[in-house]
Amino acid sequence: MTKPFRWSLSKREQLGSWPSSGQRPEAEFLSQLRATTARIIAMSDGANLAFIGRSPENFFDYLSGVFAGLDDVPHLHIIQYSLRWAGEGGVASIAKDKRDALFAYFRDEGFDPAHIAASARPVALVDFISTGGTMETLTRLLKLQAEQDGVDWNAVQRKLRIVGLTTREKNSPNTWRWQQHSDWLGIAPDMVVKNVSVPWDFIIPLANSRPKMTQANHPGRWGEEGEGRQRAPSTDQLEALAFALHLYDHGNAASERAALATEISQTHQIRQPATRALVTALKR
Prior knowledge:
- It is a single chain.
- The protein has helices spanning 27-44, 57-67, 96-109, 113-118, 133-149, 153-157, 200-209, 235-251, 254-265, 273-283, and strands at 48-52, 76-79, 123-128, 160-167, 192-198.
- It is α/β, with parallel strands linked by helices.
- The protein has one domain.
- It has a five-stranded parallel beta sheet.
- Helix 2 links the parallel strand 1 (48-52) and strand 2 (76-79).
- Helix 1 crosses helix 9.
- The chain is globular and about 50 Å long.
């Protein structure tokens, strides 16, 4: 499987005149994006960040601008992956050629079990979570790839973290928490799970209705010929591209880096050495 195509926001010469217009993010959206990103970073405790699927792509685009040109900051992945349920047979029932194509993409992205186990940093999987289906299929596929490639799964799962974006609800002993109903987490007993609660009127449109830069990369497209080549973009993709460029440029401003550093500093996790080090890097 050729790596699924996605425009590089840092290489403007490759974009031509496509992103010539588009909606600019509103101040309220940028404020909420910054606040949520600060909590993602705080919860990840210095881990590399893997944004899963299309729902969290605005965070990836914004942080790509924030981290551009900085040393000693987490590596960012955008993992184009869409699979909430693998059917009655589970991920092992997916056709082997499809799985192998996905595994090749993971290797190309540096997101395969061997890379994860060898990395100096853990990797935090970031996505909007309702019931945890996407995280389950992804984790089970990483375990399957580790077994197939002869990589020690224990070494991999110890490096994994989940930072789930969830809709904000009133906190009480009866609050429904997805991880408490996810028996599959037993396959990764050392994986740390953290949640970032976000106002529903911010996260639901961002995850569902906002135009996306890429098509959903579901099993039907794994191994598809030409998937990695650029295709004529749709109107929604052009709108999403223009919006992403605004986010990248906004994040790349020194004033915005300082504002994000301030937001992170206000979290309880600022006591973590890795979090303090990142705040220092953002302030340089």
